[in-house]
């Protein structure tokens, strides 16, 4: 996970306005979560998503570059491990652990200057056969056209949001960067609003066994 311009500040342990949209899809794609399933949340923020996996009996680690987010997460979810750390080629070495069964990362990749480094880090963090579940705001032809027709780009992609979205992803571009890193078995879900105007998209990919 590339370094942000500044520390994204978290002030409470609550859900974001997007959790209710993407988390049902995340759990659909996670499949049967057996007790002890090892989960890494990349860009865990205040730990809210980690808490949802803890409730299902998973062994959870969360990493984020936000000191404020990690401090809140440690207080709110003492059953998980949280570290101020980015996802890169050395993530497992830095954590001192074996590869994970599942890596989840929600609404993160659109904030990164170097998404390829982040994807490589996620790939290395997974065991062979492990699954990566990623969410990011959806962009496709019809949604982009509607934003243009309603003159909505200044609001939708405002340059005045410090630490905001700097890369907008479509299924095509997200598939490209994930496949480039070696992922396979793509499954996409839309979440929020009408089909093709989704607020966000959820993708599941697997690290090949061989």
UniProtKB/TrEMBL annotation:
This is Methyltransferase. Pfam families: Methyltransf_23. Gene3D superfamilies: Vaccinia Virus protein VP39 (3.40.50.150). InterPro entries: SAM-dependent_MTases_sf.
